[in-house]
Amino acid sequence: MEAAVVTRRSRESSPGDVDDTLSALWRDVAREAPVARALMANLIVLREAPAAGDLGIPLDEVMRRHPSRVIVLRHALGQAKICGPSSASVSILTFGPSHARYGVEEIVVRSACADASLPSIVRRLTRGDVPASLWWAEDLSRVAPIRALTEMARQLVFDSRQWRDVHGAVRALAPLLDDPDAPELADVNWRRLTSMRYAVVHAASTMLPGARTLERVEVHHRPGERALAWLLVGWLAARLRWPDGPRKATIQEVRHNDDVLSVTCDGIVISMNASRIVAKSEKGRLAFQVAARQESVADAVIAELSTLAPDRCLPDALRALAAGL
Amino acid sequence: MADTLFERLAVGQTPPIVAEPVTLVIFGGAGDLARRKLLPALYNLHVDGLLPPRFAAVGVGRQAMTDDAYREFAKGGASEFSRRPVDDAAWRTFAESLFFVKASIEDAAAFAPLGSRLDSIEHERGAPGNRIYYLAVPPPMFVPTVAQLARSRFVPPRSEAGRPDLPFARLIVEKPIGHDLKSACSINDQIAEVFTEQQIYRIDHYLGKETVQNILVLRFANSIFEPLFNEKQIDHVQITVAEEEGVGTRAGYYDGAGALRDMIQNHLLQLLSLITMEPPHSLNADVVRDEKLEVLESLRPMRPADVDTNVVRAQYAAGFDLGAPVPAYRAERGVDPASRTETFVALKLFIDNWRWAGVPFFMRTGKRMPKRASEITIQLKSVPPILFNAPPNGRLDPNILTVRIQPDEGFSLGISSKIPGPRVRIYPVKMDFHYGSTFGGSSPEAYERLLLDVMAGDATLFMRRDAVEAAWRFVMPIIDRWAEQGAAELPTYAAGDWGPAEANQLIESTGRKWKPL
After folding, report:
1. The domain at B209-504 falls in which architecture?
2. Residue B144: CB partners within 8 Å, gap ≥ 6?
3. A240–B9: do the CB atoms touch at under 8 Å?
4. Which chain B residues in 343-402 lie under 8 Å from chain A, judged by CB atoms?
5. B15 contacts chain A (CB < 8 A)
6. Smallest CA–CA separation between B388 and chain A, in Å?
7. Which residue of B43, B74, B183, B412 is 20 to 30 Å from A221, comparing CA positions?
8. pTM attached to this predicted model
9. pLDDT category of residue B425 using cuts at 50, 70 and 90
10. Is ipTM beyond 0.85?
11. Which CATH entry fits the domain spanning B19-203: 3.40.50.720, 3.30.450.20, 3.40.50.150, 1.10.10.10?
């Protein structure tokens, strides 16, 4: 059985003394029982301040399974003052059985400074010998990526399920798409399309072997899955180089439907629910089905954090959406 | 330039590990291996979205069972043995790919209905007829099953094997392949009449474990270790595979086999070849397997006198398992009360090649040992007895690289470090890497990886015929010598102990010690 958090030891610190406070905390934790310090990366989590105490993301689980130095930035947006963080606290979370106990460190800083101040804060807190990922815990359509932060990360992790305005979020991401210094994009929600995309490719190969493109594409989605529907359309538009872009497809929200998403095109229907993707012919005959990958948000974030080979189809899909919306 | 719809959509897609639809036919589909390992592994592959479209698994067994009953049987196995809990929605989808057919291997007539059922399942699912036949049956049934497959025309002629325009047929065989060199060759010969070597996947589940696969990465993806792996730097190597269980329900097989055949001939020699092989020039399956074979062929053959001095066998007597009394091997159910089968083997061997000349390798394996633990220990030579290692009664611990295969997969490096303070005092410390704490979550089970590899046609982690036979060639002098010794009494060790005193003498006579586990 997987181990839960065993302990969380926390201590208030001043922003300038974070490393000293952490060292003292490590000594305290090690005094209780042997503990190994686990560190694979830096994980910077951005959350707007003020916000509710709970981050609303499965951070402990991610820390357990992808041990990183976690730096939570509770950042007040839109400030003009060049200054340091107002407060900091540090924690060590320990996991695992007694013979293989390991600890992971978390630093929470509160800041109300201009964006220009952020790099020096983050640079002080990150470990330079391991890569840094930035987890954007906010809706990108509401809080656009801060360039000063994205430039410091190898990867920008986000969840497009949070997007209340798909077009706005795509616009916010657009500057990163063709910037060679921009981080790789990792959308937790996009991973849900992986099996669906395989199914579409497999259907193209086996059900539409002579076709060159898809006509009359209709996408239906459950409430709350609008971003997923647009991402699928963006991918089709990018791959099939639709002259009129993603608007060639029609997207409709359908209430009271088990399917998360379905795409109807050229006599085939491919639908995805929580557990499977089913491809049917126009007459409703089952052609094939494949499993929908079962991943929690934590699973997906961990998978993205630990991959060094980003999915190139995501920026292509976003680029098509940015150009066509 | 991509032209068809398929080609255009496939641009940039990470290709699935297995793209071709396939039907897995499990002979022994209602057996213990299927329930404990194969079906849970398939379920996990399904949940991870790694099974190909139109996949089907068809269990074949002697007892009649409906598809629904088989699905319940499989669900029971997955609920008990899967590394993740069974999710009802995911299970429903997976269960639709499970089928069961009653057929007796001895009954040629039974294969006709099996064939029609397979055809019908594949037709309904639009599958092209790629098949994998898994022999999850007792070893005596390997050859008869393969013969029936050939007689019933389940397998295309050897001349058509590997043709990309035809559906493929592959065969998975579980160990043990034979009980000696002669029988192994005979089984291999008879299977080879039906399947080409490229179609045969001989499973050694140890090779599917993450840490075992990581041995090659550790050695050949890190510049720090490989320069040390030779007779100039390494003092000796230990490989231990300890089991805490007794013979359990396997007495019928085990009492005729023993630890040498059950563990040394396959698992331990495979581990040895991975830890000592030369760098392959590519990761192509045959290139890697060629290098492993080189190791097995470089093992110094044992003469009868070498067997007497370099091999220890023993049998467990009554003892304790975690404080509870447990019976002697001979008192176990299904074991001959006069059995002379060894439940423990320790041996010293040498690899006569340029890299490893003169380095002793110690291997031990046994049942009813204090704990379940599999480890490879690579002990480096000591630093010269000057400076910090000068005091004759305060010698430093040598550096030890330990690869832990189970449990708690990972590796560690023992190094000497100064204790903080005004005096120079040195203490051995350990740099420890745990898969669990570094990568978190649960690693895929060995069978998941191995089944996926067979579907993808990657034979790297499977034993090739020449390697199986080379391993048998190495152990045969031991088997023959023991046979000559007839009724000589075996040493014993108390259940719950690390083996007999003779095993300690084997290593201690060289000035070394077994690493405590």
Report:
1. 2-Layer Sandwich (3.30)
2. B105, B106
3. yes
4. none
5. no
6. 27
7. B43
8. 0.85
9. confident
10. no
11. 3.40.50.720
